[in-house]
Recover the amino acids of this structure.
């Protein structure tokens, strides 16, 4: 009887190990599938911010918006070319904020890539957005605001340190000359 109990116990241990291995493998596969489904979304986000139009809109918001137009009436009644800049950038960050708020894209990935720009852009656009909300009783760009709040809680450098990014400073020209 001792032999059959030991054999049954061994069979139970092997079965439990097989179940645990299957669980770990299935969980890993699910995570890999999730990441592969997100890759096109993340690549599209990065691609958008590299377009000339997006860069021009960021520059306009950063360098000229506040000087050219008071924020008191929101942004809806501004000239069309100004609204295009605000919507292109503001709604982009609002959409990114949706993905972060609903845990579709990792917060650290977005903050590591755009953190400073998110904060600076929100600080410039916030008076226009708040005036818009007050005037039209809407919730314009609430996800962008949440994203800016998150960006204000940490620095890009903190995100980079947590990701253990390394540096490789440029090689000084005197070393290069010695190598040739």
């Amino acid at each position: 009887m001792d032999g059959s109990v030991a054999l049954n116990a061994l069979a139970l241990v092997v079965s439990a190990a097989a179940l645990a291995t299957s669980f770990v493998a299935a969980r890993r596969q699910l995570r890999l599938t999730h990441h592969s489904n997100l890759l096109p979304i993340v690549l599209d986000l990065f691609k958008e911010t590299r377009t000339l139009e997006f860069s021009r809109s960021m520059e306009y918001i950063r360098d000229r918006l506040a000087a050219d137009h008071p924020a008191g009436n929101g942004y809806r009644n501004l000239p069309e070319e100004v609204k295009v800049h605000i919507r292109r950038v503001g709604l982009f960050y609002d959409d990114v904020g949706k993905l972060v708020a609903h845990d579709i894209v990792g917060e650290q990935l977005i903050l590591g890539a755009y953190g400073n720009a998110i904060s600076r852009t929100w600080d410039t656009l916030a008076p226009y957005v708040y005036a818009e909300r007050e005037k039209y009783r809407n919730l314009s760009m609430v996800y962008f605001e949440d994203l800016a709040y998150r960006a204000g809680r940490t620095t890009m450098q903190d995100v980079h340190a947590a990701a253990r990014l390394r540096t490789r400073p440029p090689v000084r020209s005197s070393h290069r000359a010695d190598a040739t």
